[in-house]
């Protein structure tokens, strides 16, 4: 069984025991989370239940494994022959979670 959850402005397809990196969520390593914004629940190749826009009463339970920062991304802009150069770096704060249960 899998579920499509919405968190941090993105959608993730998750299954039991999946480890997923999502945008930073509040909590310490080892604490439990519950996602209530479930967009769809289904089984591989079989019936799929899609919400309008959310499925009422559905929950996905997860455990926080780690809070960390992602790799550094470089945004470099340049205009040739004009002497224009801008270099900006960015590291996103992420949370590593493990899906423990999908409750339809």
Description of the molecule:
With 104 residues, the chain is an all-beta fold. It has one domain. It is built from no helices and 10 strands. It has strands spanning 2-7, 10-15, 19-23, 32-35, 38-42, 48-50, 59-69, 73-79, 84-90, 93-103. The protein has a 4-stranded antiparallel β-sheet, with no helix packed on it. It is elongated. The chain starts with a strand and ends with a strand. The model has no long low-confidence stretch (mean pLDDT 95).
Key features?
about 100 residues; mainly beta; four-stranded antiparallel sheet; 10 strands; about 0% helix
Topology:
Blueprint: E1 2-7, E2 10-15, E3 19-23, E4 32-35, E5 38-42, E6 48-50, E7 59-69, E8 73-79, E9 84-90, E10 93-103
Antiparallel strand pairs: 1-2, 1-5, 3-10, 4-7, 5-6, 7-10, 8-9
Helicity range: under 10%
Number of strands: 10
What overall geometry do the principal axes of the alpha carbons give?
Answer: elongated
Query: What distance lies between the first and last C-alpha atoms, to the nearest angstrom?
Result: 10 Å
Q: How many helical stretches?
A: 0
Strand content: over 45%
Structural class by sheet pairing and helices: mainly beta
Succession of helices and strands: EEEEEEEEEE
């Amino acid at each position: 069984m899998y579920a499509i959850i919405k968190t941090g402005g993105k959608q993730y397809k998750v299954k039991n025991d999946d480890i997923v990196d999502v945008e930073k969520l509040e909590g310490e390593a080892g604490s439990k989370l519950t996602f209530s914004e479930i967009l769809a629940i289904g089984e591989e190749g079989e019936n799929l239940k899609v919400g309008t826009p959310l499925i009422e009463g559905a929950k996905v339970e997860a455990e926080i494994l780690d809070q960390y920062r992602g790799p550094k991304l470089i945004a470099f802009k340049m205009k040739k022959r004009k002497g224009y150069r801008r270099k900006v770096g960015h590291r996103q704060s992420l949370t590593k979670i493990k899906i423990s249960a999908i409750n339809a």
